[in-house]
Write a structure and sequence with these properties.
The protein has 176 residues and is an alpha+beta fold. The chain is built from 1 helix and 10 strands, in the order E-E-H-E-E-E-E-E-E-E-E. The strands form 3 sheets. A 5-stranded antiparallel β-sheet has the order 3-4-5-6-7. A 3-stranded antiparallel β-sheet has the order 8-9-10, with helices on one face. A two-stranded antiparallel ribbon has the order 1-2. A hairpin with a 2-residue loop joins strand 6 (115-120) and strand 7.
Length: 176
């Protein structure tokens, strides 16, 4: 004959049967869910932060490469230029125009709608990506002691279209 033995707990000196079954109570489940939610939210925030920083680093790298490409392009053309046409060029304005004689042909750089264009032989070619807006193509004349135009100082401000808080400004001087 089997006897059923019931566990007894002492509560204030009185013996009472233990009615708790194996498992978690509703309060314990809610506590576990709250802890899990806090950990989950922390990981989501960490993932978002890392993702945003990777995107910013990518934009910064592309922005640097794009700006350096423009200056290398300018450097190559100015090295081959015989003169700067000051009548067709626009100086001391945010949207400057630089016109030069290269191998007997007129070439120019101009800014339109946030894109820097190189024009040669009547064909305008964009040299900046539409992902990056050029906000400033500022040109200053470089004159010699006889007030002859011998070069140009270029300031370029480039910003990613999707990120207002990032920009790249570079100023350099080219002389003939």
């Amino acid at each position: 004959m089997l006897k059923t033995v019931q566990k007894m707990e002492t509560l204030n000196g009185n013996l009472k049967p233990n009615k708790r079954k194996d498992g978690a109570t509703l309060v314990e489940v809610l506590v576990y869910l709250a802890l899990f939610a806090m950990i989950f939210v922390t990981f989501i925030r960490l993932f978002w932060y890392v993702s945003e920083n990777n995107q910013r680093a990518t934009y910064r790298g592309e922005l640097d490469r794009s700006s350096m490409f423009v200056f290398e392009h300018l450097n190559t053309v100015v090295d081959n230029a015989s003169s700067i046409n000051d009548e067709l060029s626009s100086f001391a304005t945010e949207e400057g125009v630089l016109s030069m004689q290269v191998n007997g042909a007129e070439v120019s750089y101009s800014l339109a709608n946030g894109v820097l264009f190189y024009q040669s032989g009547g064909v305008a070619t964009p040299i900046t990506s539409e992902k990056y807006g050029v906000e400033r193509f500022y040109l200053e004349q470089v004159l010699n002691s006889s007030d002859e135009l011998i070069g140009v100082r270029v300031t370029l401000l480039v910003k990613p279209v999707q990120m207002d808080d990032m920009s790249f400004t570079l100023t350099t001087t080219y002389t003939l």
